[in-house]
Design brief:
By secondary structure, the protein is of the alpha+beta class.
Length: 610
């Protein structure tokens, strides 16, 4: 190769300064370009003065030798990129069995250091799924290994050092070098996680003493950091089976002295919320009332969930329910509280979950648009959860649904496509709403009202009242009772009660629609010149020569035993408008028969509908 390079220099195709770089490229066999990425060196074409390289997006790409020498970086066959190109399957097996070997390979390929983001990006095709789980295992192994320096900040690089440092020595050294309580809390958290392997336990009193000093200095002005310090101090002491130190501050001291409870929770990391809430419960006699006050305000989503969890586990569920119901009814519930309620959606909150919740969601979504830090979490959830809106309106009165539909149509928080999607969900549950959405008016359309006797209207109203006042409330109690039996997935009583709920609500909707269309009448002064609703028709079957009488009454007045038929029935429709002497075909299909109308008289409505 040396002779070939000398010939290229003599021919003027490259300069002497390019020889070293080109030789390295050819010997390594792999390279990297800052724009084109990883490449495999194929051949040197001395005659054309070009280097042929297979880049990932440019196979067989020819590069001028001088340009290649100046822009390409030689990569050895042991480099992570070369290993991925030549033996990806073997690398994947290594990653599955030997986490640290793969991490070290990435670090070595990057000069001994790389950030977590760099490592993840490099290994995305080596570990194509469940990166988080793989990295948790690898990180735990690195901490124990002693060769890896793991920084507190994710943006700082992980460094590999040839000299091994024992875990206890490393963590103790990091604690002594840490500046400030926050940094020391981070190190103590690592000591707690690795406590079984922490060999410097004789230094724990020193660590606790330093924490106590920092906690005292932070207690007045940085309560959240002091609280975190107390949490890790107490956990470390418990692991080490040590007693408390006289005069040291406790979480009770923090809570009883502070005037900014909500502020402390907001400053704490989400992972500390549960522990902080439990310490607040233990410190404050009126803890539940204060947590409820926090729910009145805009809280982080995870904190809302933790507040609700604590209230429920501590038998304060009714207080939580009353608070949520009040905030929903006042349309003052925060988007994060409504988001939690929508995701929770358990039967415990069945008496709250209704159309007013969705109306409150619309208000919160619109309110969020004016906040300095806009949030679309609730809006996105409403669109993504296809069952949310139908479930919230499934037992609503039709007029409530109409009003809710108008609110949605006027809402500025959704574009036309998203509105159509939400409106379609309403129409699927309530087809009668279609005319509102399409903009069709009653003018010029066929009259959809129906006539029926007052007795039938009374019967339908009685059925509706029984449904709303007896059957549906009883069903709600059945659901609550069945839920108390546990494990809803295998609870036959619960499933049956929920199915009954759907049937009852469906019948309720039907009755509401029917009653909205019905017009009561006593059929007084009905004309008998032709067949009308409210007349009795005597006729002769021309096939059998037998005489019969039918009574044509209202839409809901059918009674086979009394020969009463609805004017909307096929036979009723065939007879309407016909006069005495007319011959008519009645019946359907092969059961049709020819009759002659003999007489038309006013029906005795009172006796026929009694």
């Amino acid at each position: 190769m040396k002779e070939e390079m000398e010939q290229l220099v003599a021919a003027g195709k490259i300069q002497a300064r390019h020889v070293g770089a080109l030789t390295a490229l050819l010997e390594a066999g792999f390279c990297q370009h800052k724009s084109w990425g990883f490449g495999k060196v194929k051949t040197l074409d001395g005659i054309a003065g070009r280097l042929l390289i297979d880049f990932q997006t440019k196979a067989g790409h020819g590069m001028d030798l001088a340009f290649a020498a100046e822009t390409l970086k030689a990569i050895s066959k042991d480099h992570i990129l070369a290993r991925k190109a030549t033996d990806l399957k073997g690398l994947q097996q290594m990653a599955a069995l030997h986490h640290l070997d793969v991490v070290k390979l990435v670090l070595d390929s990057n000069g001994g250091r790389a950030t977590v983001t760099n490592i993840q990006e490099t290994l995305k095709d080596v570990i194509p799924s469940d990166w988080k789980k793989w990295w948790e295992v690898a990180r735990a192994e690195m901490k124990k290994d002693g060769h890896f320096q793991i920084p507190a900040k994710k943006t700082d690089p992980i460094i590999y050092q040839s000299e091994q440092t024992e875990l206890g020595d490393r963590l103790l050294g990091e604690f002594r070098a840490a500046k400030g309580l926050k940094a020391r809390v981070a190190v103590v958290s690592e000591i707690i996680k690795s406590f079984e392997d922490f060999s410097k336990r004789e230094a724990i009193p020193e660590i606790i003493q330093q924490l106590n000093a920092d906690i005292t200095s932070h207690a007045a002005t940085r309560e959240s950091e002091a609280l975190e310090g107390i949490f890790v101090r107490d956990e470390l002491r418990q692991l080490a089976s040590l007693g408390s130190v006289e005069g040291e501050l406790t979480s009770r001291d923090i809570w009883t002295r502070t005037a900014k409870v909500k502020g402390i929770f907001e400053e704490l990391p989400a992972a500390k919320h549960r522990r902080a809430l439990e310490s607040f419960r233990d410190a404050m006699p009126d803890w539940a009332a204060q947590i409820v006050l926090m729910l009145n305000e805009q809280l982080q989503a995870k904190l809302v969930g933790e507040c609700a969890r604590l209230l429920l586990t501590e038998k304060r569920g009714q207080l939580l329910k009353d608070t949520v119901q009040r905030l929903v009814s006042q349309h003052s519930a925060s988007s994060e509280l409504l988001l939690w309620l929508g995701k929770e959606r358990t039967d415990y909150f069945a008496d709250i979950l209704g159309p007013e919740v969705f109306r409150a969601m619309l208000t919160a979504i619109e309110r969020d648009q004016f906040l300095e830090k806009k949030s679309n979490r609730l809006r996105d959830y409403v669109l993504e959860d296809l069952e949310l809106l139908p479930e919230l309106i499934e037992s609503a009165d039709i007029e409530v649904v109409r009003d809710l539909t108008r609110s949605l149509q006027l809402s500025p928080s959704f574009d036309d496509m998203d509105k159509r999607s939400l409106l379609a969900r309403i129409v699927k549950a309530y087809p009668a709403i279609q005319d509102m959405i399409t903009g069709t008016s009653d003018h010029g359309r066929e009259d959809k009202t129906i006539q029926t006797s007052w007795k039938s209207i009374e019967r339908r109203k009685a059925e509706y009242d029984e449904l709303c006042n007896i059957k549906i409330p009883a069903n709600i109690k059945d659901i609550a009772l069945a839920r108390s039996y546990g494990d809803l997935r295998e609870n036959a009583e619960y499933k049956f009660a929920k199915e009954q709920q759907k049937i009852l609500n469906r019948r309720k909707h039907e009755l509401e629609l029917q009653q909205a269309r019905a017009r009561g009448t006593d059929f007084a002064n009905v004309s008998t010149d032709t067949v009308n609703a409210g007349t009795s028709v005597s006729f002769t079957d021309l096939g059998t020569n037998q005489s019969e009488t039918l009574h044509i009454l209202g839409a809901w007045d059918g009674n086979d035993e009394r020969n009463v038929i609805s004017y909307l029935s096929p036979v009723g429709q065939a007879l309407l408008g016909k006069s005495a002497g007319a011959e008519v075909s009645i019946g359907e299909g092969t059961h049709q028969r020819r009759i002659r109308i003999d007489a038309i008289a006013a029906a005795d409505v009172a006796s026929l509908t009694a």
